[in-house]
Design a protein that fits this description.
Blueprint: E1 2-3, E2 20-25, E3 30-35, E4 41-44, E5 57-60, H1 62-76, H2 84-93, H3 106-120, E6 140-145, H4 151-168, E7 178-183, H5 186-191, H6 203-206, H7 215-218, E8 222-227, H8 236-241, H9 253-261, E9 270-275, H10 288-293, H11 295-317, E10 320-327, E11 331-333, E12 341-343, E13 347-351, H12 353-358, E14 364-371, H13 391-397, H14 409-431, E15 439-444, H15 447-458, E16 473-475, H16 478-485, H17 516-528, E17 542-546, E18 558-564, H18 570-578, E19 599-603, E20 627-629, E21 641-643, E22 645-652, E23 666-669, E24 676-683, E25 686-687, E26 693-696, H19 698-703, H20 706-721, H21 729-744, E27 749-752, H22 760-769, H23 771-786, E28 787-794, E29 800-802, E30 809-811, E31 815-817, E32 825-827, H24 831-842, E33 846-851, E34 859-863, E35 866-870, E36 874-878, E37 883-888, H25 894-913, E38 919-924, H26 930-943
Parallel strand pairs: 6-10, 6-13, 7-8, 7-9, 9-10, 14-19, 15-17, 15-18, 16-17, 18-19, 23-27, 37-38
Antiparallel strand pairs: 1-3, 2-3, 4-5, 11-12, 14-24, 20-30, 21-29, 22-28, 24-25, 24-26, 31-32, 33-36, 34-35, 36-37
Length: 944
C-alpha cells in the first residue's frame, strides 16, 4: 500500500535475504513497500530533471540478476556439487549453534556462496552464464558490497575455502593455497593483516571462520598482503633518468616476481584478491588524453596502470588462477567523457547501498532537501544541496586565496547550520558519557580552500565555540598522507620532545624532531584512529581534507559531512558519503529482530545525483566544424601586453574617518540567507521528505550579542588591513572598533523584509549569518575614504601577460578574421560584439585591439562577500600610446558598479606604478557608443 510517511526505514534483517524494499512513486510522491528483493542495479538521474525527488532510471546489472536466483535455488537444494571440504565450511558458517558467538550477515554469505557456485556448482546449473573479462589474460570476478557490509570477513572466508580445498586435494586445479591480497594503501594493508593465518588476531579464529580442527591445515597455505605500490617497477625511461651509479636495466618478469612475492615466489596459480578494486581498472589508452586532462583521473590512471600492469607480469611468470575484486563502487572511467563511469562488467554479486540501508548495516545518509532561503534558480534545489556548484561559490573556491581570506557567505551559512546541529549531537554524546566526540568531515576541492576552512575554525569565524578548538581540528595534508600510505611498513614515530618540560642548560640534549617520514606516519596514525579512545585521534572532532579521504578510513563516529568540491559522478558521491556510513552499534532490537537506525547529515554532496550516460543507438552525430583561435605570428605588431596584477596593496592615512551618512547602505536580503534547513533520509536514492529533521539557528542569535558582532567584524577588517598599516596595530584596531560600532548601530544596514526584521534578535541573526558581507562593506568604505596610495602586486611567475601567451583553442561560434588584432579571428557572442569589432578594426584612433576571450586578463573584485573574477570585453592600444579597458554593457546593475570601482582601482594602481604606460577604462552602454568613446580620446589627445 502506498504511504506518504515511512514509520521505519529498516525493514529487513541483516542476517536474512531481503524480502521487501521501498519504491518511490514520483507521480503520487509516495513510497510503496514492495514484496520481494530489489533488482541488482544502480540509478541514473532522469535527463533534464530539476527536482530533488527525481526517481531516476534504474540500470540493472543483468548478470547479477541472472545468477541470484540460481544461487538461491542451489542454496535451498543443499549446495549440490560442492566438495566435502566446502560443504563442511558452509555448514559451519550457517550453524545456528554458533550464532550467539558470531553470525555472518546475509550479504557476506551470499558473496562467498556466489563465488563457490561459479567454481563448484554442476556445469548444467551454470549454462548461459558468461562473465565478461576486462581485456586481460586472467579471470576476474567482482563482489559489489556496500561500505560497512564486512568485505574483510568475506575475503577471509574465500581464502579459507581455497586453501583448505587445495590442502585436502592438491590435484584439484580449481583451488590455490597461495593467496595474494592487494591493498589500496598502508592503512588498509595493516588492517588486512588479519587475513594471514599466522597472525595472533587473525579472523579465522577470531570469527570462527574455520573449525578449530582445520586450523593446522589452514596454516599450510600462505596469505601475502601487499600494498599496490609494491607492484611498481621502473620503466626504461625512468632508468635513463636515474642519477645513481646503479645502471642495471629493467627487471625481468622473473626478478620482478621474486621481489613482489618474497616467500611465496615459487608458488604457481596464485589466487589474487583486490581490496577496493575500483582502483584496479585496465586503462583505455584511446582515452588517455581525457585521463591526463582531469587531475583526479590522471592520478587514478597511473595507479591503475601499476596495479593491473603488475598483476599482468605476475600472471606471465607464475599464473593467476583467478582474481576476486571487492568494492562498494566498482566503477571505472568509461573513456567517453572524463566525468562518465562504467560499471565493471564482471560483477557477479551485488549488495548495494540501498540494500544496506534497508537492512540497517550502515547509517542512513540525510541530505538537505530544502531551506527557508531562495533555491537555486536552475535546479530549484536548496543551494546547500551542491554548495560548490553555486555560482557565488565556485569561482571563489577555485583561486589561489590566502588562508585568512573569508569563505563565501553560502559556505559560512552552511557551516552554521551543520555546526549547530553538530553541537546538539556533541551535547547528547557528552551527556551519554561517550568517550569520543562526534566528528564532522569536510572534503575540499584544493589546498587553499582547506587552509581557509582551517583558518575559519581556528580563529572562530564560524561562531560555534565547541567546534572551533584548534587542538581538535585535523587538517590532512594529502601529499604527506599519500607518502605514508605508499609505504609497505609503517615508520615508527618517536615521542616528540616535551615542550613544557623544565629543562636545565646542563641536562641531556633535547630529543630530535621527527623526520618527515615519522611525521607522515604520525599523521596516518592520527587519521586512522579518529573516534578511537586512547589512540592519537581520539580527541579529533573536525577533519578537513583535500580530495578523497583514504580508503579504510572507517571512523564510526562521523555524524556530519560537508562537501566543498565538484561531484560529477555516483562514484565520488558514494565514496565521500561512504566515509561516514560505519555504524557505532550492531545490537539487534530483540522485539523486531532488526537494527536501530543511525544517521549521518550531509551538506554539499548531491547524493541523489547520478550521471546520465547517453545511449549508443545509431551513428554518432557529425562533429560541429571548429575554428582554431590563436595568435597570428604575422601580426605580432598588434601584440598587447599588460601587468598581471594579483592584488593591490594600499597605504592608509594614519587617522581613519568615514561619514556613514554619505556611504551607500548595505542591503541584506533575508530570503537569500538560510536560517532553517531540513534534511531527509535517502531511500532508494531519493529523499523521504516525510521524515524531516530540522536545524534552526534562532538560538544562535541569542548567544551572539551586538558587542561580539562589532568586535569580530572589526577583527576581520583588521586582518585585511594589518599588512599594509604602517603605524601601531593597537591604534588601528581601536579605530576599526569605533567605525564598525557606528555602522552596526546606524540605519545603513537595510534588511528586507523590513517589518519582520525590526526585531533586534532577528536583525542580529541575519547580520551574523552575513558577517563576511558586513566585513566587506566596512572594508570597502575604509578603503575608499582613507587610501593615500595604491601599489600593484604582480604575479611572481608571470608578472606580464601578453596576447602572444594565449593557447590555441577551438570554437564553433561565428567569427571573422581581424586586421588590427594579434589574435587571428574575433569570436562573436552577439551582433553587438560583431559591430564593435568592425569599428575597432576601422578606427584611425586604434593602433591594436583584442577581445578578452581566453586571454586571462581579469580583475578580482568582491561582491556580496564573495571574491569573483571580472573579465572586461576588450583591450585597446590607441595611437596615442594609451591603453583602454573597454566594457560593453546594456545594463547597469549594482554588481556592474562594483566591478567598475575595482577596475578604477586597478587602473589607478597601474598608472601610479608608471612602468606600463597610461591606462584608463570606459563603458559603452549601447551598440555604436564605442565610436563616442574613441572620439573622446581623440579630443583629449588634440587638447594635450
Amino acid at each position: 500500500m502506498a504511504r506518504t510517511t515511512i514509520d521505519r526505514l529498516i525493514i529487513n534483517s541483516p542476517y536474512e535475504e531481503p524480502t521487501r524494499h521501498w519504491r518511490y512513486d514520483r507521480e503520487t510522491r509516495t513510497f510503496d513497500l514492495v514484496e520481494g528483493r530489489r533488482p541488482a542495479g544502480y540509478v541514473v538521474a532522469t535527463p533534464g530533471s530539476k527536482s530533488f525527488d527525481d526517481p531516476g532510471i534504474l540500470v540493472e546489472i543483468p548478470l547479477v540478476n541472472q545468477i541470484r536466483p540460481r544461487v538461491k535455488a542451489w542454496r535451498e537444494a543443499g549446495y549440490p556439487g560442492v566438495t566435502s571440504m566446502t560443504k563442511r565450511l558452509l555448514e559451519h558458517w550457517c550453524d545456528p549453534e554458533e550464532f550467539e558467538a558470531r553470525r555472518f550477515f546475509f550479504c557476506q554469505l551470499e558473496a562467498v556462496e556466489t563465488l563457490i557456485w561459479l567454481t563448484e556448482a554442476p556445469a548444467a546449473e551454470r549454462v548461459g552464464v558468461e562473465i565478461p573479462g576486462d581485456g586481460g589474460a586472467f579471470i576476474r570476478q567482482c563482489c559489489k558490497m556496500a561500505t560497512g557490509s564486512g568485505k574483510t570477513l568475506v575475503m577471509a572466508m574465500v581464502s579459507a575455502w581455497h586453501i583448505l580445498n587445495k590442502v585436502a586435494n592438491p590435484q584439484d586445479a580449481r583451488f590455490s593455497k597461495n593467496v595474494l591480497v592487494i591493498a589500496p594503501g598502508l592503512t588498509v594493508k595493516k588492517r588486512l593483516a588479519v587475513l594471514e593465518p599466522a597472525e595472533a588476531d587473525n579472523y579465522y579464529e577470531a570469527f570462527n571462520i574455520v573449525p578449530s580442527a582445520l586450523l593446522d591445515k589452514l596454516r599450510q597455505g600462505k596469505v601475502l598482503v601487499r600494498n599496490w605500490h609494491a607492484l611498481a617497477w621502473e620503466s626504461e625511461e625512468q632508468i635513463k633518468k636515474r642519477r645513481s651509479v646503479d645502471k642495471r636495466g629493467v627487471k625481468s618478469d622473473e626478478a620482478y616476481t621474486r621481489e613482489v612475492l618474497g616467500e611465496m615466489a615459487n608458488a604457481r596459480n596464485i589466487l589474487v584478491i583486490n581490496d577496493e578494486a575500483h582502483h584496479a581498472w585496465r586503462v583505455n589508452w584511446e582515452a588517455e588524453g581525457k585521463y591526463l586532462r582531469a587531475r583526479d583521473l590522471k592520478d587514478s590512471a597511473e595507479e591503475a596502470t601499476v596495479w593491473i600492469g603488475g598483476l599482468d607480469r605476475l600472471h606471465r611468470s607464475r599464473g593467476i588462477l583467478k582474481c576476486y575484486d571487492f568494492s562498494a563502487t566498482p566503477f571505472t572511467p568509461s573513456g567517453k567523457k572524463s566525468s562518465e563511469e562504467a560499471l565493471f562488467g564482471w560483477i557477479v554479486s551485488d549488495f548495494g547501498l540501498n540494500d544496506a540501508i534497508e537492512s540497517g548495516l550502515v547509517k542512513t545518509p540525510r541530505v538537505v532537501v530544502r531551506d527557508d532561503a531562495v533555491p537555486d534558480a536552475r535546479t530549484y534545489k536548496s543551494r546547500l544541496y551542491h554548495i560548490y556548484n553555486d555560482p557565488d561559490v565556485k569561482d571563489d573556491l577555485n583561486r589561489r586565496a590566502q588562508p585568512e581570506e573569508p569563505l563565501p557567505d553560502l559556505v559560512l551559512n552552511a557551516y552554521y547550520l551543520l555546526g549547530y546541529d553538530w553541537r546538539e549531537a556533541w551535547k547528547a554524546w557528552r551527556e551519554a558519557g561517550l568517550p569520543t566526540p562526534p566528528v564532522m568531515i569536510t572534503v575540499c576541492n584544493r589546498t587553499e580552500t582547506a587552509a581557509r576552512v582551517k583558518h575559519a575554525f581556528d580563529t572562530k569565524r564560524i561562531h560555534i565555540d565547541e567546534l572551533c578548538d584548534p587542538e581538535r581540528v585535523l587538517h590532512i595534508d594529502s601529499k604527506v598522507l599519500d607518502q605514508a600510505e605508499a609505504k609497505e611498513e609503517a615508520a615508527t614515530p618517536l615521542e616528540a620532545a616535551d615542550e613544557n618540560g623544565d629543562e636545565e642548560e646542563d641536562s641531556a640534549p633535547v630529543e630530535r624532531k621527527l623526520t618527515k617520514a615519522e611525521q607522515a606516519e604520525l599523521l596516518r596514525q592520527t587519521v586512522d584512529t579518529v573516534g578511537k579512545a586512547g589512540q592519537p585521534g581520539e580527541k579529533i572532532q573536525k577533519v578537513i581534507s583535500v580530495g578523497m579521504l583514504s580508503e579504510g578510513w572507517d571512523a564510526k563516529t562521523v555524524t556530519h559531512i560537508m562537501g566543498l568540491r565538484a561531484f560529477t559522478s555516483q562514484l565520488l558521491c558514494e565514496q565521500v558519503v561512504g566515509r561516514g556510513l560505519r555504524r557505532t552499534s550492531y545490537e539487534v532490537d530483540p522485539e523486531t529482530g532488526l537494527f536501530e537506525p543511525e544517521y549521518v547529515n550531509i551538506f554539499g554532496v548531491p547524493f541523489t545525483f547520478l550521471p546520465h550516460e547517453g545511449g549508443e543507438d545509431g551513428p554518432p552525430p557529425p562533429p560541429t566544424p571548429k575554428t582554431a583561435v590563436e595568435p597570428d605570428p604575422a601580426k605580432a605588431e598588434f601584440e598587447i601586453r599588460w601587468p598581471n596584477v594579483v592584488r593591490i596593496e594600499r597605504v592608509f592615512q594614519p587617522r581613519l574617518t568615514i561619514d556613514w551618512s554619505k556611504a551607500r547602505p548595505l542591503e541584506l536580503d533575508a530570503a537569500q540567507t538560510a536560517q532553517v534547513a531540513e534534511l531527509a533520509p535517502i531511500l532508494e536514492g531519493k529523499p523521504d521528505v516525510t521524515k524531516i529533521n530540522r536545524i534552526e539557528l534562532e538560538r544562535l542569535a541569542r548567544e551572539f550579542r551586538t558587542q561580539r558582532i562589532i568586535f569580530e567584524t572589526a577583527r576581520d577588517v583588521f586582518d585585511q588591513m594589518k599588512h599594509a598599516w604602517k603605524g601601531s596595530r593597537e591604534v588601528l584596531l581601536a579605530q576599526l572598533v569605533r567605525i564598525v560600532e557606528q555602522f552596526i548601530r546606524s540605519d545603513r544596514i537595510a534588511i528586507t523584509p523590513p517589518l519582520f526584521y525590526q526585531d533586534e534578535l532577528r536583525r542580529r541573526l541575519i547580520i551574523t549569518l552575513n558577517m563576511s558581507r558586513v566585513v566587506q562593506h566596512v572594508w570597502e568604505a575604509v578603503r575608499q575614504e582613507n587610501t593615500e596610495r595604491l601599489t600593484p602586486v604582480f604575479d611572481r611567475d608571470h608578472p606580464i601577460r601578453s596576447t602572444g601567451d594565449m593557447r590555441t583553442w577551438y570554437t564553433g561560434k561565428p567569427c571573422e578574421r581581424t586586421r588590427k588584432s594579434h589574435i587571428n579571428v574575433c569570436v562573436y557572442d552577439s551582433t553587438w560584439e560583431a559591430s564593435d569589432a568592425f569599428v575597432l578594426d576601422d578606427s584611425d584612433a586604434v593602433a591594436a585591439w583584442v577581445k578578452n576571450d581566453h586571454l586571462g586578463f581579469e580583475v578580482l573584485y568582491v561582491y556580496r562577500g564573495v571574491v569573483r573574477k571580472y573579465r572586461p570585453d576588450f583591450l585597446l592600444r590607441l595611437k596615442s600610446g594609451d591603453f583602454v579597458v573597454l566594457e560593453t554593457k546594456g545594463e547597469d546593475t549594482e554588481q556592474d558598479r562594483v566591478k567598475r570601482r575595482y577596475l578604477d582601482e586597478w587602473t589607478q594602481a597601474v598608472n601610479a606604478h608608471g612602468g606600463f604606460g597610461r591606462w584608463r577604462w570606459a563603458v559603452a552602454q549601447r551598440p555604436g557608443e564605442i565610436r563616442d568613446v574613441l572620439m573622446q580620446d581623440e579630443v583629449a589627445r588634440t587638447e594635450r
